[in-house]
Amino acid sequence: MTAETSQTLDRGLRVLKLLADTDHGLTVTELSNKLGVNRTVVYRLLATLEQHALVRRDLGGRARVGLGVLRLGRQVHPLVREAALPALRSLAEDIGATAHLTLVDGAEALAVAVVEPTWTDYHVAYRAGFRHPLDRGAAGRAILAARQGGLTEPGFTLTHGELEAGASGAAAPLVGVTGVEGSVGVVMLADAVPERVGPRVVDAAREVADALR
């Protein structure tokens, strides 16, 4: 550290970098050990970063990168959408259902990119910016299942009627994108999701993850 630098800011940035390098978050004790500072300092750093939505803590107390990191640059969400759109467009056209990329924002799921099919007579209207609780709807449930290690092969979640009556959803989590929790899915007006949709959603989630790395 030189006289011209801020030790507190340096530690805060190191916290963000440490959290960005883990998919499962870190506890205060783990951060304290990695930074070589006491727990009180870490609590203060996390509280400050939380106020700016740069860090969030789950119910178990593990700290993770917050979606506020994305808001630091106005062009980040457009860049995320741009990276995801080819896979979403292919998914929507192939399945004939509305496809979406959803990211975690606090305790909510936030749709950041949506593509509707062009050839269907009707489909579910779903808009970027739509929010819903993480424990409702396929998009949020896929993210929660990935957190808990509750997804089995082929790695997708199915729901029916949780966000809109008569609508079914399928979603698969993004895997291997450091610091970002999200899912790719489709929503359709159907009593049940056709068998081929789940694996196709998994493939699309893999494509989006590759594009965001």
Automatic annotation (TrEMBL):
Residue span(s) of domain IclR-ED: 68-213
GO biological process: negative regulation of DNA-templated transcription
HTH iclR-type domain: residues covered: 6-67
One Pfam match: HTH_IclR
Presence of the UniProt keyword Transcription in the record: yes
GO MF annotation list: DNA binding; DNA-binding transcription factor activity
SMART domains to which the protein is assigned, alphabetical: HTH_ICLR
Annotated PROSITE patterns: HTH_ICLR, ICLR_ED
Keywords from the named record: DNA-binding, Transcription, Transcription regulation
PANTHER family associated with the record: HELIX-TURN-HELIX TRANSCRIPTIONAL REGULATOR, ICLR FAMILY, HTH-TYPE TRANSCRIPTIONAL REPRESSOR ALLR
The protein's name: IclR family transcriptional regulator
Organism of this sequence: Streptomyces vietnamensis
